[in-house]
Design goal:
Largest sheet: 6 strands, antiparallel
Mean pLDDT: 80
CATH class of the largest domain: Mainly Alpha
Radius of gyration: 37 Å
CATH architecture of the largest domain: Up-down Bundle
Helix content: 40-55%
Distance between the termini: 52 Å
Number of domains: 4
Structural class: alpha+beta
Strand content: 15-25%
Low-confidence stretches: 516-534, 565-584
CATH topology of the largest domain: Multidrug efflux transporter AcrB transmembrane fold
Length: 584
Amino acid sequence: MATSTPVRHAWRALIGLVTITAVLFGINALGVYVFKESSWTPELALDLQGGTQIILEAQTTDGADPSTEQMNQAVTIIRQRVDASGVGEAEVTTEGGKNIVVQIPGEADDETRQRIEASAQLQLRPVLYAGAPANTFVGEDGAETPYPTPDPALQATPTAAPTDASDPSWITPALQAEFLAYDCADEANDPASEPVEEPLVTCDVDGTVKYILGPVELDGSSIDDATFGLQQNNGVWSVNLVFDSEGTATFGEISQRLYGETAPLNQFAFVLDGYVLSAPAMQGVILDGKPSITGDFTQETAKTLADQLKYGALPLSFEVVSSDTISATLGSQQLQIGLIAGLIGLILVAIYSLIVYRALGFVIIASLIVMGVLTYITICILAWRMGFRLSLAGVAGLIVSIGFTADSFIVYFERIRDELRDGKSITGAVEDGWDRAKRTIYISKSINILAAVVLYILADATVKGFAFTLGLTTVIDVLIFILFTHPVMQLLARTRFFGSGHPLSGLDPESLGAVYRGRAQFRAPAAAVGTSAASRKASRSRGEAERRQTIAERKQAELSASDGGKTTTAVKDKPTATGKGGDD
């Protein structure tokens, strides 16, 4: 039963690998045939596919060029917005003194464009009034009719100066008229340019509600973080904010003022690019700076709002100058060259493996093929779920991983050969070689992963693809080593071809210079006869044996000498008995 345990472990590992592979293919199949969002081919990055270029121009109140610090901060936030939308390998750079160039692989969808183009500062304003989206209403006959008179709620003329941002006294007759004339569908409206210290007439992003908002009380720079999730008490989606210390104090005062007011004076609007993202009602006094926004959110809408609040604190306002389709910077020819280079590297590794390790080389080749399949399907899934796109740098990382992967197998096989040279059986050498090799491989792979992570975090965007694919293939390499290479060796060691140490198997103890077999039976060097090629080969084998002679063997030889030279030695053909040493 003991001899069958490694076999059972080997089959379990191989079944586990097949299961993992089937699950990965099943996940991608769902994306292709059910969700219609995935593909059986990896998505390519900007340098290989081309895409969309959007140029944003910074707008300043005095017309002067913005500072370098402001532009760099804006680039960082816009890049975060693009990454949050799931677009990989995008490029965000400055151009001149006041332009930001955003380049996205493939065709940018409407949601991604909105994330990029919604580039004004995030503002938090109290709601003074909310009404219909245009200066018309739908009558009983279903026809749109102009408002005959101003809304009664707006007819009171202020008698005193406003005392705070949410004071209804901000609504003057002029503001009443502006509100009634304001049409949410009119593209000429530009609410983003209105002064922050004055009230604002605007609409929500969908154009379904029209608002009068008080002056700005907080801006997006006061928001440290914004996340989304399900509330545990009721299971609804919410957006959770975290303010900084100054924002916590200000928001605490606002919540005390608004809580208990009647609608809409109890509402607080989050305004991005002049339009209301959300206007939740204040349902309590919040002094810890961690409010939650709830409503008719789905997972997607909650995530979108969280991203907008988190990445909306731009130091400048921007205007879209152009939006064009651009061609690939490198193109399919460079991709073809990279793939050919990878194929040549794979062929060279295969040839080297077959020459040095004979039949064992096929195990290396099979392991590389399995790794290639897992890497390919994983990249397809990451393109669907994370927006990962394969750049030329990423292709280079895949090519380099071929050598790193082959290195793991070589370490393992050399450990097995060392065990065979020490006189162990094939099956014993496979198990002991595994125990020794895996520690070395785990340490080296850990260093590779650490280097990939550091490179991904600190390197320029053009190098991140290399770091990502290098780290990904290193993880898959370890998985293949555990679930494929070692189990296959456990099974092959029990076959007649490998288990008997066939000269073509790569596990022949004789050709590896094994010095002894068994526990106490040592090999005597064969006598050299003549100067033929056979004698020279025997001489080299003898020299190998002498170099690998262990301490135990030397002690055994000394013990034999102390007994008068009477001992039994084994030569390649048959055992013979020798007498005393003679006239040595």
